[in-house]
Amino acid sequence: xxxxxxxxxxxxxxPTHRRALLDxxxxxxxxxxxxxxxxxxxxxxxxxxxxxxxxxxxxLELHGKLRGCIGTLQxxxxxxxxxxxxxxxxxxxxxxxxxxxxxxxxRLDIRLSLLTPAEPISFTSEExxxxxxxxxxxxxxxxxxxxxxxxxxxxxASLPDPKTFLQHLKLKAGLPEDYWSxxxxxxxxxxxxIDKHSV
Length: 199
Fold this sequence. Notes:
Helix content: 25-40%
Number of domains: 2
CATH class of the largest domain: Alpha Beta
CATH topology of the largest domain: Glycoprotein, Type 4 Pilin
Strand order of the largest sheet: 2-1-3-8
Radius of gyration: 17 Å
Order of helices and strands: HEEHEEHEEHEE
């Protein structure tokens, strides 16, 4: 028997596991619409690939428009458990939107993003940072003191210019778009995306 792919890597899940995660996300939203709580799962019943600790984001769209997005940046729960919690939170706890109505639950498009562990980027200036950003692939976390913001790699689709991407990330972190200091920290991660088109 061959070694199992690293669970920190992109693409370690088989199609059956990808479908299972999407199903868990939708079931958690359905459960939440009735009971006001995320779906409860038993980690000991999960396939080993779904029982590893992994950070995830769950993005919901309705009629092609964002309807909620909640996630974790550090692996604090097993993969399946993180997905059911974030799916519930994206549907009912995203402060930018009212809770999803029961009639909209089945209409939601669900996208899961499985994050690799974030790694610090070493840079000497904003220009140096911009040169190191990989368009379309990097998810970024920006930290300055107690302020923090992140953009998933999917955000590149609407902000394809690195400078504009970074400016909007600063705004998300609560900083002016032209802000810069030597104490800014930036981390990068990649994601494996799971949605109805990838299973």
